[in-house]
Design a protein that fits this description.
65 residues; mainly alpha; 5 helices; 0% strand
Length: 65
C-alpha cells in the first residue's frame, strides 16, 4: 500500500518496515500476482527502484516526476 499511495522507494519502505529491500520487492511482487489472479492481467506496474534509476544515470527524484 505504501508503494502506491505515498510513492516511497523500496529502500524507504524497507527502512520504515524494518525489512530487507529484497523482502519488500518480494512482497510487492506477491501482491501484484494476487491482484492479477483476481482481476486479470495488469499492465506493467514496474516502478523503478533506486538501483534501476541509478543504473540509468538519473537522480532518484528526477525519475519519479
Amino acid at each position: 500500500m505504501l508503494r502506491f499511495c505515498e510513492d516511497p522507494t523500496v529502500p524507504e519502505i524497507a527502512a520504515q518496515m524494518q525489512l530487507a529491500p529484497g523482502t519488500v520487492k518480494r512482497y510487492l511482487s506477491n501482491a501484484v500476482h494476487k491482484l492479477e489472479t483476481r482481476l486479470g492481467p495488469m499492465p506493467s506496474l514496474h516502478v523503478p527502484d533506486d538501483d534501476d534509476v541509478l543504473a540509468a544515470g538519473l537522480s532518484t527524484r528526477t525519475a519519479r516526476i
